[in-house]
Amino acid sequence: MAKNVAGSPLERNSLASLDQKLAMAKRCSHEGVIAGAKAAVIASIATAIPTVASARMLPWARANLNHTAQALIISTVAGAAYFIVADKTVLATARRNSFQQLSKNDV
């Protein structure tokens, strides 16, 4: 009797469909890594220039920001930029792919 019941789309997935989803997930994560790395490089440069310049020119910064503090400021901004951009890219790519997959199922 259970053979006459229509299965859900999740139950009908074949091994090829699972491989396709895995490949799509890898592509999404790869795009996120690339976008995050680009954002981290740009954020590092954009943060390093004013941080190092202020540590050399401003009396307060010269007295309080040693090399470790400067590196911590720069690396914190770079890490935050990486994770924020990578996360947003992965989510946007996954959302775009899910809408494409939904439109393929409707056709």
From TrEMBL:
What would be one Pfam family of this protein?
Answer: ENOD93
Q: Which organism is it from?
A: Juglans regia
TM ranges are 33-55, 67-86
Please indicate if the UniProt record lists Signal as a keyword. Answer: no
Q: What is this protein called?
A: Early nodulin-93-like isoform X2
Q: Keywords assigned by UniProt?
A: Membrane, Transmembrane, Transmembrane helix
The answer to whether UniProt assigns keyword Lipid metabolism to this entry is no
Q: Which InterPro entries match?
A: Enod93
